[in-house]
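hiii, so i know i said id send this last week but things got crazy w the move. better late than never?? heres the sequnce for the chain we talked about at the cafe, plus the structure i predicted for it. fair warning i was half asleep when i ran it
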Amino acid sequence: MASITTTVTTTTTATTTNRPAARLVCFSFAAYARTLIDRLKSAGVPVLKGLTEHELSSLESAHSISFPPDLRSILQEGVPIGSGFPDWRSSSLQQLQIQFSLPQLTFFKLISKNYFWCASWGERPEIVAEAVALVERLAEDAPALVPVYRNCYVATRPSMAGNPVFYVNGRDIRLLSFDLAGFFRDMEFTEKGTLRQRAGPKIDSPPWAATAPRKIDFWSEAVEAARLAMCGWWDGGGKLTLVLDEAFWTLIDGGWRLDEVREMMMMMEDHEAGKKGNVDRDRSPVSSLSMKLFHGQRTAKGPA
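okay and structure toks below
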């Protein structure tokens, strides 16, 4: 009996010690997805039953993509179908294909308007059609962007959890969140299908949440080029740049004109430099709106 007991104990120990990491990761993804779906339901977002493995595989095959693990886990737990969310189960193949194509088409439109240009693309052709054609060729090997909510997308490659969320519309392309966990933590989804920063309690970030944006082939460089073109005059790096970037886009999204935003942002920089004795304090007063934004209080002017 003693030898049998020892054999059983040894087998159990070996089974336990050989697979702890995989079991822990799976539990982490599943638990987070469950918490997130419950949070969306409590916020009034309609949620359907999660996608089956067969449904996910069919979608991946139809659109030649692979869902990143974190998005895949969320969709297995539940399918949000509120205004702004893609309806993965009921939408036709053509409807979903349009949503997949939209970010690239919008991106090429930005290029045609000469909003920005990446140095690695070489010299920009003077003829607009040639410039767009060049970028289209370069983008052929870029990871597909999967729709998450309205103009918000996550890259399919690398096939890992933690890919950043990009915002792409007819006016700009930018990094919106380091990953899906941060996106769902910080954003609030309205009944009208609009997106805004969450003001109330936020869902806890899982242990595997990203703390910095992962570099995505093609898209990360394009996003940085667009950022520098739009708001690169304060490009000092570090946390201050992140705060100023957030303030800039809060104002733009709130309906302020670019020239108005530039003026306020420059006043914010002057204020911070003035506290260090680097500028003439007579250039104050700084607008209260600018300082509220700088210190994290979001106030936005509605569209005219």
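btw Residues 6-235 form one domain. thought thatd interest u
miss u guys!!
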